[in-house]
Specification:
six-stranded antiparallel sheet; globular; alpha+beta
């Protein structure tokens, strides 16, 4: 029997490897029991960069700790860099798709207390054109994939 966390990472890795130019992946933890559908959820996102992958994990500015727990020390220990400016997220570079996928899943698992791999979902979005192009931001949602 395979580890559900490894299966989740494998699914996200496969999606990252299939990205076309101008696309990124966003992964969310969807807490469904007693949480309204409009509630903000923890997320991480990743896009190909010039060298490797550029990854982001939601910061306190976008999902405050009073809405969802945040362990910044866990992020720092895992090699994430603190947000720059009020609009920033935690960020890091990864060398390969598997490292990027694992970084995002582990960031949500350990810094945002997302402990059930079956509640993760991910989808492909399209990078915006214009200023700031190259960093994941808005989502043009593709097909939703749920963790097995």
């Amino acid at each position: 029997m395979s580890d559900p966390w490894d299966s989740l990472v494998a699914g996200v890795t496969a999606t990252l490897r299939d990205l076309r130019p101008g696309e990124f992946v966003v992964i969310e933890f969807v807490e469904v029991d007693g949480v309204p559908a409009w509630s903000p959820w923890p997320y991480a996102q990743c896009a190909p960069a010039e060298e490797g992958w550029y990854c982001e994990a939601v910061s306190a500015d976008h999902l405050p700790p009073h809405q969802w727990p945040l362990d910044e020390l866990a992020l720092r220990r895992a090699g994430w860099h603190a947000p720059v400016g009020a609009e920033g997220n935690w960020y890091r570079q990864a060398d390969g798709a598997a490292e990027a996928a694992r970084s995002m899943v582990e960031a949500l698992r350990h810094s945002r207390d997302c402990q059930d791999p079956s509640r993760f979902r991910w989808q492909v979005g399209t990078l915006p054109s214009g200023p700031g192009n190259g960093s994941p931001s808005s989502l043009d949602a593709g097909p939703l994939r749920l963790a097995a």
